[in-house]
Structure formats: C-alpha cells, structure tokens
Amino acid sequence: MGQTTLDDDELFDEAASEMRDDVEDSLTKAREALPESDTIWNADADNTLGVLNGLRSALDTDDAAAHLTDAKKWYTMGKRADAFEDPDDLEEQIATLDAVFEDIEDAHEQVSDLASTVPELRGALDDAHEAAETDESDADDADAEADADAEEAEAAD
C-alpha cells in the first residue's frame, strides 16, 4: 500500500510540474503572439482610413488571446488542485498580460470607432463644402441679377 501512495504522489508531482510548464508555455506563446510595437507605431498607407485599418489589423490579438486563455485554464486547474508550490509568480504574469490585453482591446475599439467615423465625417464635410459652393453660386447669381435690374432701371430713367 505504501508503494501505491508513493507512486500517486510522484504522479501528482509530475502532473503538477507538467501543468506549470503548460501555463508557462502558454504565457510565452501569448507574449510572442502579441503585436510588435513597431507594427502599431509605423504606418504605411495613403490616407487616414488606410492607417486606421492597418492599425486595427495590427491590434488583432486572437492567437495571443487564445494562448492566454489556455494559460488561465491550466493555472486555475493547478491552483484549485493545489498543485503549484509558488503560484504567485504565475498569477502575476497572467495579471500583467491581462492588463496589456485590456489596453490593446481598448485601443482596438477606439481605432474601430474612428475607422467608422472618419468616412462619415469626410462625407459630411464634402456635403457641407458642396452646400457652401451652391450657396455662393446662388449668391453670385442673385448679385448678377440685381446688377442687371439696377442697370435696366438706370437705362429706363
């Protein structure tokens, strides 16, 4: 019976070690899948909308988020099983990455909003300028008509 208990303890220790490795591996993969800072800093586009769409794409974190979710999953399992000798460092790493993801998600949302707003704003500005040109043209026509009427009235006198 003593041998079985020892084997169970050894198996548990081995499983706990593998679980910690899985958490650390997932955290590493999540960090590696994050966008590079130059990718979000440098832009190669012909216009504002191109810049915004490029930035929005650069802020896509699907793969990194999946790895972070895996890390959280294995961490939660290990913590509940009391499998980790020192879970605090893993918890801190997860919290740090969570904060980075929140910042990226906020930026992605703001960029997406701008990418939707800028074309609408451009259309509104074009419409406003066209209306101003139409008003100016109408004013010029009215001035010309008034001048013609004044000349006609002078000629009649």
Automatic annotation (TrEMBL):
Biased composition regions of type Basic and acidic residues, renumbered to the chain: 123-132
Compositional bias annotation for Acidic residues: 133-157
Entries under InterPro entries matching the protein: DUF5790
UniProt-recorded name of the protein: DUF5790 family protein
Protein species of origin: Halorientalis brevis
Domain of life: Archaea
Region (Disordered): 120-157
